[in-house]
Amino acid sequence: MLKVEAWVYVGSHGGMQMVPLRVGRQVAQACRLLRTHTIRVIQIPMVNMFLVTAVKVAATHLGVCVILKYQWAPLGACILAFMIKNILTLLILIFVLLNSCDSSKNNQVQQIIIPASIDSLENLQVYPLLDNSSLDTVILERVLTIKSNEEVYFEGYINLFDVDDKNNIFVVIQNPSKIDIKVYDSLGNYKTKIGRLGRGPGEFQSIGSIDVFNDKIYVLDTRLQKVVVYSTIDYSLIHENKLNSTNHLGGMSSVMRAREISVLKDDVILLKYESNIGSNDYRRIFYYKLSKDGSTIENKVLDLENYFLYLPETQLNLPLKPPFLRNSLVALSQKGLIFTSWNEDLLIKAHDEMGNYKYSFYYPYTKSSLSLSELNFSREEQNLIIKHGLPDTWPAIHTIEVSSDDKVWISTITDSDSTYDWWISDLKGELLATFSKPGYRNNRKVYRKPLIKIKNGYFYEHEFDFNQGIDRIIKYKINLKIRV
Predict the structure, then answer these.
(1) What are phi and psi of 139, to 5 degrees?
(2) HSE-up of 427 (CA within 13 Å, CB side)?
(3) Can you name the residues that pair with 332 across neighbouring β-strands?
């Protein structure tokens, strides 16, 4: 009986199990190890190439994905490494594997190269992007459209919106001379409006962010730098507070202003700040925790790199923000987790409510190639891009969202200039479903996320096209087509 002995690391990255694998005498045990999960990360010394072949064969017939990470073995492992005396022995080994493993599936083994910067992360889980035929499919059924009409005329454009637990929709309409929040029920019937233009209690100069959480509506006035809170029950004003950011921002408080408000939990309210200092440099975004009374900036939660500006030589022209720029994306879950992604790669990081890193999940993804000819820029703008550098590819991710049932929705940039591919996973990154949706990558706005909410089984999206006169909120029912 052939005896093979080598040290093999079996398990997900960050929690590997090191076991002596005696292929031949304990082939069944090896197969059981491979059956444990649908993806394996196996780290094996370079000298054990026949064992590599055996593992590939076993994984193929088990229908699992194996990531082989080769490394030079320490001297002791080299001494223990198995020796194959002739080709006949190898054939016997493969025959034993074929007859010891379940051959009901015949998926090809996938070898994945993980970038070193990602592979070094702690608590990293690597997943393959599965073929669409192996995942459930989402079908979005349009059920409601909210837009300006004769009954409710919008004196301005839709700037923001959010949805409460009863599927009431809160739409921010504003122009330089008028501002309010219009409220619609789940069927699209107009109910009332909240707020107005002004500087007094319950009045606004510029609504930069809105977040509906439980029975409260949190509104951030970016010009007056105040937080206003309303009730979703009777739409009355609960309280408002002017932000006091001097203690924690210090001298930066004069150049950094709160841009976005997000409620993670009842007692955890986050404010997003953006730096606007420096030249041709990456901007940064910061998340700070807001005190319970909504007045004082407390500790910093996140410090993230943001997009790069293409600055023209003359100050008469505005900075260029091309759609291919890399930027940081943030999404919150109702379980108190903060998900972030630098969208260069299909890598998602999870943090707790204080910003402490918890874990990551990564999908190897082939990014779409990028050429200057496909971009709608003037000759002057093209020369500016060439001067500062054009990436070879588009970023991997368009946007990320977390639904109310704690699923991570990831929109990826594809080779098509008019379609995004969406991937839905659980909070740990295991893929559940996928679908494609129209969207134009050349229209990406790197300075703000697309206006999308996924709540209570519905997908809400803001559609805007100035040239075609489109400015509306679309509500889709999420239908799941189960893979047979």
Answers:
(1) -120, 120
(2) 18
(3) 338
Residue 70 CB coordination number (10 Å): 14
pLDDT greater than 80 at residue 16: no
DSSP state of 302: E
Q: Is 80 left (phi over 0), alpha (psi -120 to 50) or beta?
A: alpha
Contacts 24+ apart (CB under 8 A), 110-115: 110/65, 110/66, 110/67, 111/66, 111/67, 111/68, 112/65, 112/67, 112/364, 113/364, 114/67, 114/69, 114/362, 114/364, 115/345
Whether the per-residue pLDDT at 58 is higher than 90: the answer is no
Residue 371 has pLDDT above 90, yes or no: yes
Residues forming a β-bridge with 227: 220, 241
Find out whether 302 and 271 touch, Cβ atoms under 8 Å: no
Handedness of CA 198, 201, 206, 211 (dihedral sign): negative
> Between the CA of residue 76 and those of 73, 85, 440, what are the distances in Å?
8, 20, 56
Which pair of structure tokens corresponds to residue 377? 């820029």
Tokens representing residue 401 in the block: 């969202």
DSSP 102-149: --S--PPP---PPPHHHHTSTTEEE-----GGGSEEEEEEEEEEEE--
Note the Cα 68 to chain centre separation in Å: 26
pLDDT for 22-33, tens place per residue? 444 344 445 455
**Other Cβ atoms within 10 Å of 254 Cβ, number:** 10
How many other CB atoms sit within 10 Å of the CB of residue 290?
Answer: 24
CA 96 to chain centroid: 43
